[in-house]
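User: My instructor asked us to take a sequence, write out its structure as tokens, and then describe one feature of it. I'm not sure where to start. Here is the sequence I was given:
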Amino acid sequence: MRGHKGQAEMSEAKKRKIHTPAFKAKVGLEALRGVKTINDIGQEYGVHPVQVGLWKKEIQAQAKTLFEGKRGPKPTAAHREPELLFSEIGKLKVELDWLKKKSGMCLS
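Assistant: Let's start with the prediction itself. The structure tokens for your sequence are:
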């Protein structure tokens, strides 16, 4: 019976905790503040310090996207989009005409 109990304890210990995005953000932002060490934050929230560090890095990497929006580079790209599409259509027409001529020469 003792062996059976040990297996049950191991399976419970191996279960992976699933954290919400809000929890990850909270822990990652606390690590980003730098008031506490990553080890202290990990102990406080019951998360491995390596995981805390990964969440911190993810926040740093994604931070720039917070400021991309209506005032960022998208309106300029949206303004130029029709111009780029017409340019692409023109190139494709030229390629199509060339392929038609080329295939006609091969069939003769």
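For the description part of your assignment, you could build on this observation: The helical segments are 2-14, 21-33, 38-45, 49-62, 74-107. Try explaining in your own words what that tells you about the chain.
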